[in-house]
Amino acid sequence: MNQHAPVSSIAFIDLEAQRHRLGRAIDDAVGRVLTHCQFINGPEVGQLEAELAAFCGAKHVVSCASGTDALLMVLMAKNIGPGDAVICPSFTFCATAEVVALAGATPVFVDVDEATFNIDIASLVRGIAAARKTGLKPKAIIPVDLFGQSADHDGVAEVARAEGLFVLDDAAQSFGATFKGQKLGTLADATTTSFFPAKPLGCYGDGGAIFTDNDELAQTLRSIRVHGQGSDKYDNVRLGLTARLDTVQAAVLREKLKIFDDEIAARDVVAERYAQALGNIVDVPRLMAGNTSTWAQYTVRVPGGHRAALAAALKARGVPTAIYYPKPLHRQTAYRHFPVAADGLPVSERLSGEVLSLPMHAYLDEPTQARIIAAVGDAMAEIA
Predict the structure, then answer these.
(1) For a Cys staple, 295 with which of 92, 170, 194, 267, CB 3.0–4.6 Å?
(2) Nearest-angstrom CA–CA distance, 213 and 79
């Protein structure tokens, strides 16, 4: 390939193609909000919550302003704070641990499974022991469903039952995926997701939601969402947040939810093409038996110290890449003083040096993907 020839860039995530598919539906939905002018708590918010509940089978859905707010609200509702420990993986986005610290509690970092990148059950057990050893009281587990695939919820639930811990599932990247035939949203005491635009189900700004079957928890969350409001608007019964999902974003999400199943199926096709073509070139992601994924990212592993060279070679060929995540949380400045499970987190550290995400979205057509696949093959042949 002539490195000096101009190359057309490929979209990493193609929101424009999705916008084209939705056409007037989005314009009309937003237009209805502009007509009725109920920008906060408009009818679309309640309608979206009901539709999300029907989609995943949860009894209650509490929409909110972001996936981060969703996590924080649950911790607040459970009165998790100083002296408490919340066990979470280190190989994830910072919001998972950030909210624990914001609540005044202590995140305790554990390792992830080599194959799925999700929480390792043996390390989880060691993390609980490490928390107690430092004088903390373990209260909750946050098992992140990373890159679109569910964590081992049977294993997490078994540990949680034995230890008396609350399970808060961070499904920011995986809403719409299934674990043993069951959609995420009902597998933990509470589940949260994010509607950030780049997520598989994203709005046109920030947004999030909480899913639970617990009536009391749902009622408390609705109060926290609006400054801790009680039945009397001006009698705030607890500390809360300004964490509502605005009506415009709810209207957008209602239209996107209508095509979400189709988009997940399309992502599956893209993932399968990658797996078939790249399986002998790089380490491709693997699904646990019985799992499906929303493929929020298509993340391969590039061992041998070749990741930087591969990323540079792909960039020269017009193929964008990203690294999720270049540094595990327990190595980051804001989090490195928090406890970690005994025996360290070697898998998280190894993954951070090897992972590379390729373009992934529901509108990645076969010719464009063939160009990506060829670029990876050519680049690896040159590097290796």
Answers:
(1) 267
(2) 18
DSSP 9: P
Q: For 208-266, write each residue's pLDDT tens digit.
A: 999 999 999 999 999 999 999 998 888 999 999 999 999 999 999 999 999 999 999 99
Terminal Cα distance for the chain, rounded: 17
User: What whole-number distance in Å separates Cα of residue 47 and Cα of residue 45?
Assistant: 5
CB atoms within 10 A of CB 71: 31
Task: Write down all domains in the chain, each with its CATH number in brackets.
Answer: 19-258 (3.40.640.10), 260-383 (3.90.1150.10)
**What is the pLDDT at residue 2?**
39
Structure tokens at 87: 């066990």
Give the integer Cα–Cα distance in Å for 184 and 174: 8
**How many residues can be counted in the chain?**
384
- Distance, in Å, from the CA atom of 284 to the CA atom of 275, rounded to the nearest integer, reads 6
Specify the pTM: 0.96
Tokens of 217: 């928890």
Residue written as token pair 């406890």:
339
The CA-based diameter of the chain, rounded to the nearest angstrom, is 70
Q: What value does the mean pLDDT take over residues 15-25?
A: 97
Mean pLDDT of 99-126: 99
The structure tokens listed for 202 are: 């994203």
